[in-house]
Amino acid sequence: MPRYLSLVRIEENSIDMASADPGFEERMGALFEEITKAGAMVDTAGLKPTAESTRITWQDGKLSFTDGPFTETKEVVGGYAMLQCKDMAEAIEWGKRFLEVHPPHWTVGLEVREVEEMPGS
After folding, report:
1. In 3D, which of 83, 79, 103 has the Cα closest to residue 27?
2. CA–CA separation, 68 vs 55, rounded Å?
3. How many CA atoms lie within 13 A of 87 on its CB side?
4. Rg of the chain (C-alpha set)
5. Distance (Å, whole) CA 24 – CA 36
6. pLDDT tens track, the chain, 121 positions
7. 3-state secondary structure labels for all residues of the chain
8. Rounded to 5 degrees, what angle do the CA atoms 38, 108, 40 make?
9. What's the whole-model pTM score?
């Protein structure tokens, strides 16, 4: 069964958990439980801020390292979910439901991509 990576895109520092409505965490927990019981959830997590990250670049045969935060970056990957679904339509349906759980005054994006299996894996 194909796997799909959902990348949660946010504008870093624009989402304040204190501004979430009281039922947000409960709704999210219930959705994650439903996705897990459906056998679709492989893994999910939020990511630490870019201030705690390092970018490693390979260019002209050399490595370079840049510690965050990255001032030129506005939108960042704030979390991910690895799903195992029958097709892209199912992965997108879970993604729509994930976004609809969030408070309406937040801006959250989701990129859903099928995982390309490597030969021999």
Report:
1. 103
2. 8
3. 1
4. 17
5. 18
6. 999 999 999 988 788 888 899 999 999 999 999 999 999 999 999 999 888 999 999 999 999 999 988 777 678 899 999 999 999 999 999 999 999 999 999 999 999 999 998 887 6
7. CCEEEEEEEEECCCCCHHHCCCCHHHHHHHHHHHHHHCCCEEEEEECCCHHHCEEEEEECCEEEEEECCCCCCCEEEEEEEEEECCCHHHHHHHHHHHHHCCCCCCCCEEEEEECCCCCCC
8. 10
9. 0.87
d(CA 110, CA 117): 21
Q: Environment class of residue 66 by beta-carbon count within 10 Å: exposed (0-12), middle (13-18) or buried (19+)?
A: exposed
| Residue reference for tokens 């840049």 | 66
